Amino acid sequence: MIYFNGCSFMYGFELKNANKSRFSRLICNELQHDEWNTSKPGASNDRIWRTTMSDLTLVKQKPKAVVIMWSGINRSEFVVNVRNKWLWKNGTWKSYKLDKNTMCASKDSHMSGNIDVNDTHYNIMNNYMKSKPSVHSLRYTIASMLSVKALCKSLNIPLLNYTFSRTQYVDNLDTLDWLMYDSTNGDEPTPDISKREVLEELPFIEEPGFYDYCKLNNFPIGEKDHPLEGAHIWMANKIIKDLKKHGIHRKTN
């Protein structure tokens, strides 16, 4: 069994038959392993981290490998009580642009609506997401990546990391070297992991993501800006090569 987690790019959104033609299925068909794909369209890195940590901790039969495709750093996850249920909800953007002066979403950016979110909740979530600077979002995503790496290492499970696109990461990497202060009780300079240290631990952040590879190889993109069948075949072949480097080969009976 191989474990996969991510957003719509991992899920196979816009494919004619995602369950048959997304790259996770193609990989498992080729290597003769069961597919465990827990990705969701619209997933944030918060969700990817939360579900990966829970899944790997709780499952008794550990997967042979873990493949994560991280989403954009600008999404968030919330908890709301709707229909007498506590729900995890992911905040995505209908329109997003980064204001380089504030490092926050621009004033004309706004979150996508949701049938389970009333106007009060929407305004709270929208204002929170717009006021959360990328300086914060990048650091929390890095913390999530490092904790997943540590968990997989403790379980002796090979981990392969990718991004849906490197743009939001490389555009903000220099902020890792900014002087930060802990203002919990007065302002005190606080140590932070540096850009150099992050890239040593997580070198994939600078590498092209799935969407970037589509552009580099001129693969067709769907109407909603997602990779189509040809790109999934290419990505499957790339990940299969990476899995083999980690000792994951075709399963033999």
Briefly say what this structure is:
The chain is of the alpha/beta class and 253 residues long. It is built from 10 helices and 12 strands. The model has no long low-confidence stretch (mean pLDDT 95).
Keywords:
two-stranded antiparallel sheet; Rossmann fold; 40% helix; single chain; 10 helices; globular; four-stranded parallel beta sheet
Number of domains: 1
Q: Specify the biggest β-sheet.
A: 4 strands, parallel
**Strand adjacency order, main sheet:** 2-1-3-10
Average pLDDT over all residues: 95
What's the overall geometry? globular
Describe what this molecule looks like in 3D:
With 253 residues, the protein is an alpha/beta fold. It has one domain (2-73, 134-245): 3-Layer(aba) Sandwich (Rossmann fold). Helices cover 40% and strands 19% of the residues. It is built from 10 helices and 12 strands. The strands form 5 sheets. A 4-stranded parallel beta sheet has the order 2-1-3-10, with helices on both faces. Helix 3 (23-31) packs across helix 10 and helix 4 runs parallel beside helix 6 (134-155). The chain is globular and about 60 Å long. The chain starts with a strand and ends in an 8-residue tail after the last helix. The relative contact order is 0.16. The mean pLDDT is 95.
